[in-house]
Amino acid sequence: MSTALEKPQIIAHIQKSLNYTVFESRWIPCSAKFVCMGNFARGTGVMQIYEIQHGELKLVKEIEKPKPIKCGTFGASSLQHRHLATGDFDGNLNVWNLEAPECPVYSVKAHKEIINAVDGVGGLGIGDGAPEIVTGSRDGTVKVWDSRQKDTPVVNMEPMEGEAKRDCWTVAFGHAFNDQDRCVCAGYDNGDIKLFDLRNMSLRWETNIKNGVCSVEFDRKDINMNKLVATSLEGKFHVFDMRTQHPSKGFASVSEKAHKSTVWQVRHLPQNRDIFMTSGGAGNLHLWKYEYPGQRTKKGSDDVDEGVAGSVNLLQNVTLSTQPISSLDWSPDKQGLCVSSSFDQSVRVLIVTKLN
Fold first, then answer.
1. Secondary structure of residue 5 in the 3-state scheme
2. Are strands 142-145 and 155-157 parallel, antiparallel or unpaired?
3. Model-level pTM?
4. Cα(223)–Cα(270) distance, rounded to whole angstroms?
């Protein structure tokens, strides 16, 4: 009994039913508020801002937009502005001032089809260099945008002439530890994972994990690449050690069969990069801890350094819903506070205990 109580517990603190399909929820930095994004049944987009007050959720603002909103990030905005960048079903990238959300402060027709995923870096004091937003779309392209530059992306990564266009499901920034270096990782519906080096404008590494890649995330965006987690359709996730890249073998990795269904998302704890949560298609959350091996590199048979993968331990799991938990976001300010949303049209505020 005592060991069960020593483990972290995942507690559903507040639950709220919504009258729309919610795709993503994000904490508004430096606040007790979060924003939910999705679409109404009538086909329009919605953003709702909620605040936690005395253990209840209070709706602060509801904003309706013409197109359903699929994804959003605060990552490219300053802590002063806290502008939300969103991607919609029509391929538009918009940046909103949530205090005055009538017109976007930046808007571009980023893609021909739906924007599935968006990530930001260089804002919120996270990652050196310019504030940038990366978008991944069903049209097969991954683009990097600087909101100070109108209409054209800073980088456009698309399939070669004659190559099949694969649906890009997930994108993430990493390696932004100085003003020059920066990487983007993208995951695709056929299991491809591609790592783009933005400094050299080159494809640095690619691999295939056999199943559609639902979510990728570096354990930290603003350090020399350390670890990358990729989750997939068949209930598996992979943790890659990104410190040592072997010329032919690439990065060492460990994989874990986590859920009985799709692993929709992975999110690392902002206060501890070795703890992360995965969300599943059967409405469950799994909390994991990565254990490093005794040595992270070894000499291979060719006398070249290669990485050594560690192991992952399940700390806790909980089932919250009968529907997929499609979105998860840790509070950057309060350790263990988390918001999740699922396809049962609910948003939940969770508290995870004993994380230190």
1. helix
2. antiparallel
3. 0.95
4. 13
